[in-house]
Amino acid sequence: MELLIIRHGQSEADLLEVHEGRADFPLTELGEQQARLMAQYVEANVRPDIILTSPLKRAEKTANLLQEAIDCKLIEIDDLREFNNGVLAGMARKEAAIKYPLPDGGRPIHVPIQDGESELDFRFRAEKIFNKIILDYKQHNRVAIVSHGGLISNFLKAVLNLPNNNKTIFATGDTGMHLIDIREDCSIIKFLNKQDHLMK
């Protein structure tokens, strides 16, 4: 099966210099345009059989615009939400740096931010949803997954069997796409962070 992993378009939080995470900001007008261009590209080149999406507004709207172009089933999955950043959600970055400064050397991966999840919890959530998807949707040739930058980075670490303490970050731009062919003996990376559709 192939996994087409897609980040949502630009959200209002991208313009406000705030921590987004679980804060539920909608797409901007540009974000919706980006999502429509992505949907056109996907419809013409890498059509999925089904779409799975985070229920947060920015991902859900991106997935809905893709569904309009593809006309296939769409399912919301809670575990595809972005990192639970607790008290930081929606807070201005400058304010957060004063109220909740990082400890010297950074926050240990097993320690959560107040009211949120730890980096280790986040990674395990990505591992869980990756394994659930490849088991529950294996009858599909191609599954589209619409999610968020942090979740996608951890999801790709799960795909590649990277260790929990690995420092690699997989960047994904607005409506960037990754295509991975999951096979029994290996995983084939066909492309990462593809954004050709935004070059029009």
UniProtKB/TrEMBL annotation:
Pfam families reported in the protein's UniProt record: His_Phos_1
Lineage: superkingdom: Bacteria
The protein's enzyme class: hydrolase
Segment forming the signal sequence: none
Gene3D superfamilies attached to this UniProt entry: Phosphoglycerate mutase-like
EC numbers for this chain: 3.1.3.-
InterPro entries with a match to the protein in the record: His_Pase_superF_clade-1, His_PPase_superfam, PGM_Phosphatase
Keyword Transferase: no
Assigned keywords, A-Z: Hydrolase
GO function term, MF aspect, one: hydrolase activity
Listed name of the protein: Histidine phosphatase family protein
